[in-house]
Structures are given as structure tokens and as C-alpha cells.
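mind reviewing this stuff:

——
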Amino acid sequence: MKSSFIQLALACAVCVTTLILYGFWYAAVSTKSVGVAKLESEIVAAIEATSRAASVRAALTKITSEETVVQSYFVPETGVVAFINDLEARGRQQGTLVRVLSVSAGTETKQPMLVLTLTINGVFDAVMRTVGTIEYAPYALSISEISLGQEDDKGNWRANLKLRVGSLSANTANSDGQDVLKASTP
């Protein structure tokens, strides 16, 4: 009977030892599982942050290209001569003579603006076509004053125009949005 009791005691000791080892093993695995779950959530958060950063970069690139398109409608301070040459070329294409009499900075609004005074000389039809091409030029401009009169008996007409053209300061015209793009890159 002693041998049965010893066997039972040994079996109980092995069973208790096994249960205790199983408890330690289960606690260790549970701790590692919590760590893995935490690491997995950090990975998901990092992937989402990377995805958001990529979409922000794409949006900034799109905005930068749209900003460039919008800025092309304004005359930069450094591009006034090119703008005047464009106006004169539009007149030549229509068979008229366009002369810019004055250029000044507009001060009535917060938006930078150029005020140009110009004359257009030629036959009536050509003068009116030139006024139309200037008015519908791809710039943020408006004709604030216009007067039209016949110059002589030969059919020559003269239009006096006062234009308001949206302008950009030199530092705004040179900005390409890259400083914002670089600042947002992780």
C-alpha cells in the first residue's frame, strides 16, 4: 500500500507541478500576447500616419500646381514689362497701335493691383477687337474706364482705357509651395 500511496503522491506532485508550470507558461504567453497586440496597434497607427502623410503630400502637390495656375492670372512686379509687351502684341495682331501711357500701383484695395492707362489707335473694327482681346486676356483684369472717339476723317479711331490688373509681390511670385511641402514631410 505504501507503493500505491507513493505513486499517488508522486502523480499528485507531478500534476500540481505541471499545473504550476502551465500557469507560469500561460502568464508568460499572455504577457507576450499583450506586447504583440500593442506592437500590432502601433504598426497600424504608423501605417495610417504614413498613409495620411502621403495623401497630404499629394494634396499639397495638387494645391501647388493649382496655385501656379492661379498665379499666372496675376502680373508679378517683375513681369510688368512683359505684360506691357503682351498688350502691345495683342494690338499689333489686330492691326492697331497700343501705347501704354502710365503704370501705377493701385492703392484702393488690400490686393496688390496695377493701374494702367493706355491708348489704342486704328480703324474702328480693329480698335474694338483689340479692346475685346485685352478685356478677355488670361489675366485678372478689368477695364475701369473707357472712352472712344474718332481721331480724323480718314476713319481712324482712338480708345483710351484704364485697366486694373491683379498683381503679385516679387516674393509671392517666386514662391512655389515647396517650403510648405518640405515642412509637412515626416
Observations:
- The radius of gyration is 39 Å.
- Residues 176-186 have pLDDT under 50 and may be disordered.
- Residues 102 and 146 are 15 Å apart (CA to CA).
